[in-house]
Design brief:
Chain lengths: ~325, ~280
């Protein structure tokens, strides 16, 4: 058959109206299944490609890659310890700041603010979430880091300098700055999810507590938070997932030194920042392979976090009795 | 429970309310600080040549980022052309067919997980399949990396938006003998149109500001993008390179580029919110 014959083939006349409709339905369904399968296959391909390309490094260094603190492209010694440490510490700082702040903002939006104000603050949070990470990086490098170096870090050192964490040269660039920028980036996600979780608490429960003479603080700490604790944990997971793989903002301000330092003022590196900085410069196969293995480690960490978060949220939804 | 004095209770309550209000003010102040910095420093770098010229050499003056703007538009559009259709139909599958099937659950899990993959990993993956094999960086690789980020967001929002369409609407159409595909495309899509369009626009706006996936795929280039089969200029990687450089004129150009990206992304977000979602929360 020529193309013309194929295109003008009277499918409907041969198969009848219902058959063509069901053929069209089958094709449509098959197409949507193919698209869904594409997502699954892509995820599989990502895992396989990362493993395949880090094979050289995995063979050379074995599992000790994960806890070796050496990163020397010249002597070809690579270990992920300082990158993993930097990733975890900067994320921990981010959560320590963003979780209480997100909780306070959610409390304000749900319990204290009038509806209109709550809506506008919600929009502002949405804008904060929409700002591209490289803008946070620019702002962090040129505005926040000098500010911290001039005002905040000397003050911290003067008051808390006896703790090794806050002792060191106030350079502005370093783990603390990276953590604070990450906190601001994770904040809108944490705050909005916590707000949504708070609004799901049945009003009667809160009214009952208020009716017995409770203050807002007591209603929040004894009714709202216990009722929504699982959702709050879910919000923390979302913030964690957002912060842990963040690349550009961290790359600008973390300092990119392959060291593990007690002081938060010292420069460090995270997995993502190391990839961003060194990948295009790596010419040696082992160097490239080590970098891909770093990426694999980051992928594994985020995958596990996602898995825990989703199982957690699914359990929560079942308990809430919603759809799915 | 240990009884506490009325005084402690009331003051503890006021303190928490105060802290809560301060947290909101701090958040708003930081947002204002970022926007102020980007708008003021960025606006100073903007002039007509900035939009039409090629970059100036380091330390020089004049010049612009016309090539990077064009490149970012190309990359984003191509990424949207690849990622959006697949995402939409994956979302259709999740909402219309795979609502509670096993494959549906697996796909939903994968979509959510894929949304949480750090964007730099998308770049790494595309590097291994499209840069190593071809032997050089290319705009196509950059677009594919961005498409990988668009895909799960669009799939997820499509599913959510289609789920909002009442089941009764589908059932009445099916009862009239309308085939399933027509019900989906002609009726369910129409009912969810605003949601779908806003989901796509927000996803595209978000990836247009992404840098990490382009670092080792599209790379960057000082020339006009003639073909996407070679390293392609783009705004975000330019910001990264220029900001890290010691030259004043490059740092200024980075601020100008930041201005453009921020305004474009935030404007899209606001327009979508105001025009399409009409103040619906989330």
């Amino acid at each position: 058959m020529t193309l013309r014959q194929v295109l003008t083939f009277p499918v409907r006349a041969v198969l009848g109206r219902h058959a063509t409709q069901s053929l069209a339905d089958t094709l449509f369904r098959a197409f949507t299944v193919a698209c869904a399968a594409a997502v699954c296959l892509l995820m599989l391909a990502i895992v396989l490609e990362l493993i395949r390309n880090s094979e050289l490094s995995i063979r050379t260094f074995g599992f000790s890659f994960l806890w070796t603190d050496a990163w020397n492209p010249v002597t070809k010694q690579f270990g992920a310890a300082s990158s993993i440490y930097g990733t975890l510490v900067s994320t921990a700082i981010a959560l320590l700041v963003a979780v209480p702040m997100g909780l306070a903002i959610a409390l304000f939006l749900v319990e204290l603010a009038p509806a209109w104000l709550s809506r506008y603050v919600g929009y502002a949070l949405e804008l904060l979430a929409a700002i591209p990470s490289i803008i946070y990086g620019m702002w962090g490098l040129f505005v926040v880091a000098p500010y911290l170096a001039d005002h905040v870090q000397p003050a911290l050192q003067a008051t808390l300098g006896w703790i090794p964490l806050f002792d060191g040269p106030p350079m502005g660039i370093g783990m603390l700055t990276a953590g604070l920028i990450l906190a601001l980036m994770a904040l809108p996600f944490i705050a909005t999810v916590m707000r949504d979780v708070f609004t799901m608490v049945p009003t009667v429960l809160k009214e009952a507590a208020y009716g017995m003479g409770s203050t807002t603080l007591e209603v929040t700490s004894r009714v709202t938070i216990p009722f929504s604790i699982q959702g709050l944990v879910g919000a923390v997971f979302l913030g964690l997932a957002r912060a842990i793989g963040e690349t550009m903002a961290v790359t600008f301000v973390i300092g990119n030194a392959h060291n593990i330092e007690a002081s938060l003022f010292m420069p460090g590196n995270s997995i993502a920042s190391t990839l961003a900085n060194e990948f295009t410069e790596a010419s040696d196969p082992l160097y490239l392979s080590a970098l891909v293995e770093l990426g694999l480690a980051l992928f594994a960490i985020t995958f596990i976090i996602q898995m825990i978060a989703q199982v957690w949220l699914a359990r929560l939804k079942r308990r809430a009795g919603g759809r799915q | 429970m240990r009884p506490r004095s009325k005084f402690t209770r009331i003051w503890a309550d006021r303190a928490v309310k105060g802290i809560s209000g301060l947290a909101v003010l701090a958040g708003l102040a930081l947002l204002a600080w970022i926007l102020y910095t980007v708008l003021v420093r960025g606006a100073a770098a903007l002039h007509w040549d900035f939009f039409t010229q090629l970059p100036a050499p380091p330390g020089g003056s004049g010049g612009g980022l016309g090539n990077a703007m064009l490149g970012t538009v190309y990359l984003t559009l191509l990424a949207a052309a690849m990622g959006v259709p697949v995402g939409i139909f994956a979302g259709v599958y999740l909402s219309e067919y795979g609502h509670s099937s096993r494959f549906g659950h697996v796909t939903r899990f994968m979509v959510n997980t894929m949304m949480g993959i750090p964007s730099i990993i998308a770049g790494l993956f595309v590097y291994t399949i499209l840069v190593v094999t071809v032997g050089h960086f290319s705009g196509y690789a950059g677009a594919v990396a961005l498409a990988l980020l668009i895909l799960p967001i669009v799939a997820r929002t499509t599913e959510d938006m289609l789920n909002l369409v009442p089941v009764a609407l589908r059932e009445s159409a099916l009862a009239l003998g309308v085939p399933r595909w027509k019900v989906t495309l002609g009726i369910v899509f129409r009912a969810a149109r605003n949601g779908l369009v806003s989901g796509v626009l927000l996803a595209v706006a978000r990836v247009s500001g992404e840098t990490a996936p382009l670092l080792f795929t599209a790379l960057n280039s000082p020339y006009w993008p003639r073909t996407l089969s070679e390293p392609t200029a783009n705004l975000t990687v330019t910001i990264f390179n220029y900001a890290m450089s010691p030259y004043d004129n490059w740092q200024n150009a980075a601020w100008g580029a930041s201005f453009l990206i921020t305004v474009a992304v935030l404007l899209t977000t606001v327009v979508v919110r105001v025009a399409l979602l009409k103040g619906r929360s989330r």
